[in-house]
Design brief:
197 residues; globular
């Protein structure tokens, strides 16, 4: 069965293709479907945004669509940047601009109060209206400066629990085992067979 990954984020596409590689789905990127256009992520929650993307892409392509919305929730910032993670430093901001703004806002926050988590909500949606969703969380803490060249987003400033390296210092295999996206997809894969029947 063909499925569309409802994102144009190259890092995310690569990660999801790897995580779904054992599922026998023919994964197509959103770029193959120019008729979809831009989808405005205006939901108040990760679920609302993921559902809107999956439903829109599925309806416009006639294929099953898999969408996620994810972001960083920082304890000291009352859960910010949250759903605004990708545009924290403004519309069109780069990953670096976003995490540098975050580090600047947290420069006076002591080590013991730098807790945070990545949260991911994933939705698989079929053109017949059937859907399943899953959520994954990865706890950790925010560093004082960026480290590492791998990954994307806030990976260079996030150290997952039980490690001393940032997400951007882990191999892709290590990251996929513990990441919020890996956890959400693991749950989604258990549910997705309902949609394939």
């Amino acid at each position: 069965m063909k499925a569309v990954i409802a994102t144009r984020n190259k890092g995310k596409i690569k990660e999801l293709k790897e995580l779904l590689s054992d599922f026998g789905l023919d994964i197509l990127p959103l770029d193959h479907f120019p008729q979809v256009g831009e989808i405005v992520e205006d939901g108040d929650t990760f679920f609302e945004n993921a559902m809107k993307k999956a439903k829109t892409v599925s309806e416009k392509t006639g294929l099953m669509a898999i969408a996620d919305d994810s972001g960083l929730e920082v304890d000291a910032l009352k859960g910010a940047p949250g759903v605004y993670s990708a545009r924290y430093a403004g519309e069109g901001a780069t990953d670096e601009q976003n995490y540098l703004k975050l580090l600047d806002e947290m420069k006076d926050v002591p080590e013991e109060k730098r807790g945070a988590q990545f949260r991911c909500v994933m939705v698989a949606y079929r053109p017949d209206g059937r859907w399943v969703s899953a959520e994954g969380v990865c706890r950790g803490r925010i560093t004082y400066s960026p480290r590492g060249e791998k990954g994307f987003g806030y990976d260079p400033v996030f150290v997952p629990e039980g490690d001393t390296r940032t997400m951007a210092e882990l191999t892709r295999e290590e990251k996929n085992k513990i990441s919020h996206r890996g956890k959400a997809l693991g749950i989604l894969k258990e549910k997705i067979s309902e949609l394939l029947s």
